[in-house]
Amino acid sequence: MSLDRTDVEKIAHLARIAISDDEIPATTAKLSGILDLIDKMQAVDTDGVAPLAHPLETTQRLRPDAVTESNHRDDYQTIAPATESGLYLVPKVIE
Amino acid sequence: MHEKTLAELSQALQSKTLSSVELTQHYLTRIEQFDGELNSYITVSPELALRQAAAADEVIAKGEASALTGIPLAHKDLFCTQGLRTSCGSKMLDNFISPYESTVTQRFIDAGAVTLGKTNLDEFAMGSSTESSFYGPTRNPWDTERVPGGSSGGSAAAIAARLCAAATGTDTGGSIRQPAGFTALTGLKPTYGRVSRWGMIAYASSLDQGGPMARTAEDCALMLQVMAGFDEKDSTSVDQPVDNYSASLNDSLKGLRIGLPKEYFASGLDAATADAIDAAVKQFQALGAEVKEISLPNAELAIPAYYVIAPAEASSNLSRFDGVRFGYRCDNPADLTDLYKRSRGEGFGAEVKRRIMVGAYALSAGYYDAYYLQAQKIRRLIKNDFMAAYEQVDVILCPTSPTPAFKIGEKIDDPVSLYLTDIYTITANLAGVPGIALPAGFANGLPLGMQLLGPYFSEARLLNIAHQYQQVTDWHQRAPAGY
Predict the structure, then answer these.
(1) What sections of B251-335 are H helices per DSSP?
(2) Which B residues, 112 through 171, put their C-beta within 8 Å of a C-beta on chain A?
(3) Which residues form the active site (chain B) (predicted)?
(4) Does residue B22 have a pLDDT over 70?
(5) In what order do the strands lie in the sheet with B446-453?
(6) Does A12 touch chain B (CB under 8 A)?
(7) What is the pLDDT of residues B304-351, one digit of tens each?
């Protein structure tokens, strides 16, 4: 599977990763190489095979709906890039 | 004192012929002396280590010590350690001081072990050579022109150079076993769900598993005893009793059935490694094992399936690194999308970005069935191969990698060639079965690795088999020259 420049720009946008014009040719070549490797799967007939998500096929445990966590907001916000009054700051979203 | 194994150090500490403070200081001095060249540690924590060592000596004096009390360890820098930087080898987390402690490191703290520091790794554990770290490559003490393997290459180099008694690693596609093979160590990837993933920075959640790395199987048994067990904080942790891993080390191998998967000994395997495994087969036969050829017919599909599943899970897991709550944030973002894109574009290295993009592509509209679903179906075929094999044999013996350690820089510009180095290790992660890597010999001064793969929860048996092999061989006793 060979990607072109537009594909790579679209994927980078989906992944929310800034990519410079200089990086695009090498990224396109390397991603295409990886997809060629992956595409070896396509020749395999997997009709009727159930997908495997967890090797032991366990399901999520349930627990009583009770509060078990305490509030760590102050601890967590000491390592945040920008906070104010207990809130995380980001550039203005709504004008 | 660094010549001693973890088990021997434990005895020396408990018989009080050595104090933990002396031992810890000794390792700290060695790190100072050797790690400038090796770069096995990202962060060394001398104050914490000496404080823990002094506390351990008090516990030992009271006669309340356990096997790990006072033992200086290193932790792969993706286990969150409260108050101590947890970088994951990434610029993204260069400033990240974890606000909480991972379950694995907490268990070592509770057992009285000493934390010397945090070891280098491929960025976010995505790699097989420890070259993609933001903090620069780690060098292999057996030949400093070569890689120590990866992603747990910092832990491997630190143990091999005797800069800690043992260390933690994690294994998503071979990241404990391949570096153990490259550095003449013993390393165990447990059954998926045996060791808690809580506080272990996630790469591919359905494959990631923490485990011990040390010089011997006996040492790995002591380490795993602390690490293993149910943890309600990890939703995929398995609630099953933990075996006594040291108790069965001396069991006989008489009647043990070992399978050699023919697909793993086909073209592409280094001749010296193949010869070393032939010699190991004879050793196992002399110990009473029966050896036969088996087949894992879908093994060649493991790498393609892995490079869908792991990147897909990574693209989801790493979406949390957005420049908002913790980690790197770009300067002067124009708007929220610019904040996300530039924080991630500048904070992640090239390989991490590639894997996130492969994952985003595989999960994108119109491609899900062809990629992610197909990979999960192949994962079932690979699991079925193992289950069929374990009807015929008790364990599977095979190499850890196609060649010994390669040179720094040799493969880093060609991702696919680097991915192929994990061809023998990835199947165990997809199937979720445990595997132990151990040294099988040397060629031109470089270690050769082999691994034993067992059924789910057969860790005690794998440690037993490795220990018995290490009673009749001395590969694991060799140390790299100069360390």
Answers:
(1) 271-286, 302-317
(2) none
(3) 76 (charge relay system), 151 (charge relay system), 175 (acyl-ester intermediate)
(4) yes
(5) B41-44, B114-119, B72-76, B166-170, B210-214, B186-189, B435-443, B446-453, B395-399, B257-261, B290-294
(6) yes
(7) 999 999 999 999 999 999 999 999 999 999 999 999 999 999 999 999
For an interface test with A, the pick among B331, B363, B380 (most A C-beta atoms closer than 10 Å) comes out as: B380
B332 interfacial to chain A (CB closer than 8 Å): no
Q: Which residues of B are catalytic?
A: 76, 151, 175
**Beta-carbon contacts of residue B137 (< 8 Å; ≥ 6 apart):** B39, B129, B130, B131, B147, B408
Answer whether CATH 3.20.20.10 is correct for domain A5-41.
no
Nearest CA of chain A to the CA of B52: how many Å? 24
Annotated domain spans of chain A: 5-41
**Contact call for B304 and A15, based on CB within 8 A:** no
Nearest CA in chain B to A76: B99
pLDDT (tens digit per residue) in B139-174: 999 999 999 999 999 999 999 999 999 999 999 999
Contacts of A40 in chain B (CB under 8 A): 300-301, 304
Residue A90 contacts B where some CB pair is shorter than 8 Å: yes
> For the structural domain made of B6-254+464-477, what CATH number should be given?
3.90.1300.10
**A17 near B CB under 8 A:** yes
Q: According to the model, what pLDDT value does residue B300 have? A: 94
| Threshold 0.95, pTM exceeds | yes
Which residue of B97, B342, B414 is in closest CB contact with A18? B342
Q: How many residues does chain A have?
A: 95
Residues 6+ apart with CB under 8 A from B7: B67, B216, B218, B219, B222
| CB within 8 Å of chain A, chain B residues 11-30 | none
Q: Provide CATH 3.90.1300.10 ranges for chain B.
A: 6-254+464-477
Taking the CA of residue B153 and the nearest CA in chain A, the distance in Å comes to 23
Q: Hey, of A2, A23, A37, which one would you mutate to test binding to chain B, going by the most B CBs within 10 A of its CB?
A: A37
Per DSSP, the three-state class of B467 is helix
Each residue of B447-481: pLDDT tens digit? 999 999 999 999 999 999 999 999 999 999 999 99
- How far apart, in whole angstroms, are the C-alpha atoms of residue B426 and residue B440? 20
